[in-house]
Design brief:
Blueprint (H helix, E strand, L loop, with lengths): L1 H28 L24 E2 L6 E6 L2 E6 L4 E6 L5 E3 L9 H4 L2 E7 L4 E5 H6 L4 E6 L2 E8 L14 E3 H17 L5 H14 E3 L5 E4 L7 H14 L3 H9 L13 E10 L2 E7 L4 E2 L4 E8 L6 E2 L6 E5 L5 E4 L10 E4 L23 E8 L15 H7 L12 E11 L4 E6 L12 E9 L3 E5 L10 E5 L6 E9 L5 H16 L11 E6 L1 E8 L2 E8 L3 H10 L5 E6 L23 H10 L4 E5 L3 E2 L8 H4 L10 E2 L16 E3 L2 H14 L4 E4 L18 H18 L1 E5 L11 E3 L13 E2 L2 H6 L6 E4 L7 H11 L2 E6 L20 H22 L4 E8 L2 E6 L4 E5 L5 E3 L2 E3 L3 E6 L2 E2 L1
Parallel strand pairs: 28-31, 28-41, 31-32, 32-36, 36-37, 37-38, 40-41
Antiparallel strand pairs: 1-8, 2-3, 3-4, 4-5, 6-7, 6-16, 8-9, 9-13, 10-12, 11-12, 13-14, 13-15, 14-27, 16-24, 17-24, 18-19, 18-21, 19-39, 20-23, 21-22, 22-27, 23-24, 25-26, 29-30, 33-35, 34-35, 42-43, 43-44, 44-47, 45-46, 47-48
Helix pairs in contact: 4-5, 5-6, 13-14, 16-17
Length: 893
């Protein structure tokens, strides 16, 4: 009986425990039911233009279109597109056959494809279509369509010509010995021999036992070395049978693959004087499923400048605010400049901090050069006979006008496909004996799918075992528009062309201020470490309560300002999942906030990060609701440790919300909020995609999700965006944290404020934080006067000593009581200066010397700014270190 009672008691205990577990699980699961998934938007592609008849590929050059003051000609034999600016006579060609030009300069398109092992191969359209005459041309409205059938007459895969591993004798006797024999027989030169030997050394290493040589490249070896060794194998008569024999000795099977086969359609149109080039990826035909198109470079030689013909010019890239290369400055110590637009390789490189301090937020590039027309000399053998007669009539007969030298150029705008595009620069040189080519080029390329080589044992593992993660091919259009500048092709003129393009595309108008606006970022609720009975706990602290904010704003009553209140929602700065607008209680009560909003309704914005979740509260489950990276795991993002460039695992990480859950969460947040002015922390430049193998979300779908989210927020009220990409700025009423710098790539000649010139009068924007920089307030005052920028400060009401132990080291100098005199003084200086200038409308901007610039405003007032840390002489007199001079009516003020 006792045993029965004991067993019954044990059964009750087990039942109770199970019941409690079920209830706890249900309660923990319940919040997840409030996290809703939305259908992802579809990506639309443009309708392909109808063909209007064919053009023979044997025809001579013909005029294809004429409009907008320009003519477009096509040479069907080479697919060279020639643009003529009618007013200036300047010409721009898409390919060149100048001396020393290679297939890369002959090709209007370069295609890169990937095989199933991840090896990449590059094919140029000249070698693999035009020269083989495997292409056709159709007329379309104001342009033509080239249908290019890329194929190979023979393989370009190194492993089909050279062994992956070979005996010592084969390497030394057959290959090295064969090179020596060819030199002795006069078949090749010593220079050729060195080239072959260098390629062998580049590709092959000796095994540890010293008995064989092996190909050290697991992926794709360098193209140049591949071509050299394929040529060597042919010259030496290294047969397929020998290849199979050498590989078999080491258990390696030789696979001779069927070559890749692609058909690509490229449309080229003259649209109101602009050259538009596009490739719809959904129209690409693939004749061999073992390969996939990975990248397309459109018009890679367009408008190139030959160093032998020109000494003056620059290439513009949208690096940070903007940067210029001088042409003809090739340096073999630097690799070619190639950077992703919108930081589109972010998830591939996320575990290491970038070497570049600035991103490319504008899909635009350009080139300018001094175009001096050549005067042709007479070649007629009888020309001298009439020389005396010509001299006699020279004075009386009018001479044909010679077009004057002018700075001509173009600005290229990536209209479609920017989310996976790159801006590429190749600099030329007059002397190619030390490497490089004669040709200066800038052009776009487009990834049509993305990939990453993922470390199996984690990003910081010393074990380098990896697997290849790839996306599907993206449904997208690759398109670039070239706008031409027939004279005075300065970076300012390029910025104006891009600015006008944006105004037309987004139907926006100009609005120029006459005085500066102070941008004030106020830090409120955050978590700090505390101890209760010796046990470490997180404690919520408001660095600036509503009452304290009111006190600050009262003190700044005479200052025109826009205020961001950081840390207002759902736990503060380290917010939980923002599916509802829960205010943080330590900041104050609802009445205090309502009073603030009532008094500062046009200038107070509460910060909000819709795509970030620092905790798993509110039903947020990372495995279900977080963005998945290439490694198949929910991505957690930490601050970087500056010395190691790796994640700082002591910092507080956050998840990114999966694109399918963002819209629904944002809708419920907006509905539950009593606030309509939001400073959106993360959507301005978020690169949004999902890389889970069976649930991929392309960046083009992710962009539509972000656009929908910004549309909802802007419809609900007013928003501020932090450092936004150019395609998102017009959702905002204000934008912040616009840098004046570039990444300082070694071959940059100048930083230029291209981005600020474009933004001028379109949308009010701020500089970076004045007080969180080592540059000092003088540096930011110069930006305000040079560009009409607005200064920004980040402040706290409370002292920052309490934050020293927490993860808030960046707030090292934010206490308002210490900063207020600097803020008021800087604002007063800027306001006084613009009272003299009279407007913020910029009508010209130019470089006087290194780090010295001159801005011309619409009132005729000029401002000279010296960013150097020493005084400088200028045409307008001495300008002090980090100082400026206002010039009015030719006289300094």
């Amino acid at each position: 009986m006792k045993n029965f009672i004991a067993r019954l008691s044990l059964l009750k205990i087990i039942t109770f425990i199970v019941a409690v577990a079920i209830i706890v699980s249900f309660i923990s699961y319940l919040p997840q039911t409030t996290v809703h998934r939305a259908d992802l938007p579809a990506v639309e592609t443009k309708t392909v233009a109808a063909a209007e008849g064919s053009i023979s590929i044997e025809a001579d050059e013909l005029l294809i279109a004429s409009n907008g003051g320009r003519e477009m000609y096509l040479d069907p034999k080479t697919l060279n597109t020639r643009i003529v600016d009618i007013a200036s006579g300047a010409e721009f060609n898409s390919v060149t056959f100048a001396d020393e030009a290679t297939e890369a300069e002959h090709a209007p398109l370069i295609l890169t494809y990937m095989d199933k092992s991840g090896a990449l191969t590059q094919w140029d359209a000249f070698t693999h279509a035009i020269d083989m005459e495997t292409y056709s041309i159709d007329r379309i409205a104001n342009g033509y369509r080239a249908t290019l059938h890329f194929t190979a007459s023979e393989s370009t895969v190194l492993n089909e010509f050279m062994p992956k591993e070979m005996p010592l004798e084969r390497y030394e006797d057959f290959f090295l010995g064969g090179i020596d024999r060819m030199v002795l027989d006069g078949e090749i030169t010593e220079a050729d021999a060195e080239r072959y030997q260098k390629a062998l050394r580049m590709i092959y290493n000796v095994q540890d036992d010293g008995n064989s040589y092996y190909n050290k490249y697991s992926g794709t070896p360098p193209v140049s070395a591949t071509n050299i060794l394929i040529d060597l194998s042919k010259k030496l008569g290294y047969t397929t049978e020998m290849l199979i024999e050498d590989n078999r000795e080491y258990g390696i099977t030789v696979e001779i693959k069927t070559p890749a086969d692609f058909t690509v359609k490229m449309d080229v149109v003259l649209d109101n004087g602009d050259l538009c080039v596009s490739v719809p990826t959904h129209e690409i035909e693939n004749g061999n499923e073992d390969y996939v198109v990975q990248n397309l470079a459109l018009f890679p030689a367009f408008g190139l400048v030959d160093a032998r013909d020109c000494d003056e010019g620059f290439i513009f890239v949208p690096d940070g605010a903007g940067a210029l290369f001088d042409i003809n400055t090739y340096d073999g110590n630097y690799s070619n400049y190639s950077r992703p637009v919108y930081n589109n390789t972010y998830y591939d490189n996320i575990y290491l901090a970038s070497d570049y301090k600035e991103d490319l937020t504008m899909p635009v590039f350009g080139m300018s050069h001094l175009d001096a027309p050549k005067i042709e000399e007479a070649e007629d053998e009888d020309a001298e006979e009439g020389e005396e007669a010509e001299e006699a009539t020279e004075a009386s007969e009018p001479q044909a006008p010679v077009r004057p030298a002018a700075n001509v150029g173009f600005v290229g705008i990536i209209e479609e496909g920017a989310l996976t595009s790159y801006v590429n620069v190749e600099l030329g040189t007059k002397d190619t004996s030390g490497g490089g080519t004669n040709f200066n080029k800038v052009y776009p390329s487009f990834d049509t799918m993305q990939y990453s080589s993922v470390k199996v044992f984690g990003p910081y593992s010393t074990n380098d075992a990896r697997f290849l993660a790839t996306t599907d091919e993206y449904t997208m259009d690759c398109a670039v528009r070239y706008k031409f500048i027939g004279q005075d092709a300065t970076y300012y003129a390029m910025a104006q062309e891009y600015r006008k393009y944006l105004m037309n595309k987004y139907s926006v108008s100009e609005d120029f201020a006459t005085e500066p606006t102070l941008f004030l970022n106020v830090v409120s609720a955050l978590d700090i470490k505390d101890r209760i009975l010796g046990v470490p706990v997180n404690k919520k602290l408001s660095m600036t309560t509503y009452e304290e904010l009111a006190e600050i704003l009262t003190d700044l009553v005479d200052v025109k300002k826009v205020v961001t209140y950081e840390g207002a929602f759902n736990g503060g700065i380290f917010n939980s999942f923002n599916k509802s607008a829960g205010l943080v209680s330590v900041n104050g009560n609802a009445r205090e906030l309502t009073e603030l909003q009532s008094k500062y309704s046009d200038s107070l914005y509460l910060e909000y990060a819709p795509a970030r979740a620092y905790s798993q509260k509110g039903g947020f489950t990372p495995s279900k609701h977080a963005l998945i990276s290439y490694d198949g795991e929910p991505l957690q993002i930490y601050d970087y440790n500056i010395p190691t460039k790796q994640f700082d695992l002591s910092s507080t990480p956050y998840y990114l919300v999966h694109p399918a859950y963002l819209t629904a969460a944002l809708e419920t947040f907006v509905k539950s909020s009593s606030v309509s002015n939001f400073a959106v922390k993360d959507l301005g430049n978020l690169y949004y995609a999902n890389y889970k193998a069976d649930e991929q979300v392309s960046p083009y779908v992710g962009e539509k999700v972000v656009e929908d989210a910004l549309g909802l927020l802007s419809a609900a009220g007013s928003i501020i965006l932090d450092n936004p990409n150019m395609n998102r700025i017009f959702y905002a009423d204000y934008i912040t944290d616009i840098s004046r710098e570039s990444s300082d790539f070694g071959l940059f000649r100048h930083n230029v404020p291209f981005r600020q010139i474009v933004l001028n009068g379109l949308i009010p924007y701020s500089t970076l934080n004045v007080n969180m920089s080592t540059s000092g307030s003088d540096y930011y005052l110069l930006q305000t006067l040079e560009l009409g920028s607005n200064p920004k400060f980040t402040v706290t009401y409370k002292g920052v000593e309490i934050l020293k132990e927490a993860n808030f080291n960046k707030y090292f100098s934010t206490e308002y009581s210490i900063l207020k005199d600097t803020i008021k003084s800087m604002y007063a200086d800027a306001k006084d200066a613009f009272a003299q200038i009279g407007t913020t409308q910029i009508v010209n901007h130019e470089i006087l010397e290194d780090n010295i610039y001159k801005t011309t405003y619409a009132t005729g007032v000029e401002v000279v700014t010296n960013y150097n840390t020493y005084e400088c002489e200028t045409p307008y007199g001495t300008v002090g270190a980090r100082h400026y001079k206002i010039v009015k009516g030719g006289e300094s003020q």
